[in-house]
Amino acid sequence: MMGFSDSVSMYDGKHMDVLMINALFHSLHNIFHTMVGLEIEAGVPEAKHSRQAMGEVSAMIGMNAENAHGSIALTLNRASVNEIFCRLEGEDIVDFDREASDLVGELVNMLAGGAKSILADKGFDFDMQSPRLMTGEGHELKHHYDGQTVLLPICVGQSEFFMELNFV
Fold this sequence. Notes:
Blueprint: H1 18-36, E1 40-42, E2 46-48, E3 57-65, E4 68-76, H2 78-89, H3 96-120, E5 127-128, E6 132-135, E7 149-156, E8 159-167
Antiparallel strand pairs: 1-7, 2-7, 3-4, 3-5, 3-6, 4-8, 7-8
Helix pairs in contact: 1-3, 2-3
């Protein structure tokens, strides 16, 4: 499992904080390990310069604390949604738009909730918003704030999906 240093502040004024990425990745790892029965591996985080989603279904959720505000998005392609759905439900998706949106919305809710718990142990008290769901090839993700969006590729099984973070 990929790990990050916990020795920096929430935000240094220019770059996404390693503490937030670490909390989110550990939360996601826990979800996939315990609920989905799959191991995930994080790729290299990079700056994202467009709003175009990297997959066909996305869910975004806002998180706000006294000293940090932002949003998190998960974007999955059809192959990754099918792989995860099949592991959870034991069958293939019948109604892709509805079932994929429900799945990704629930994943982003669990992701933010797990990260909120991890960050609370470090003194950060985040409030979460309701997730916003988007589908369709080429849809756009507009994060809640104008900070730099960080894109983190996540490999799961034979497929890949993406986590986006944007905090100020």
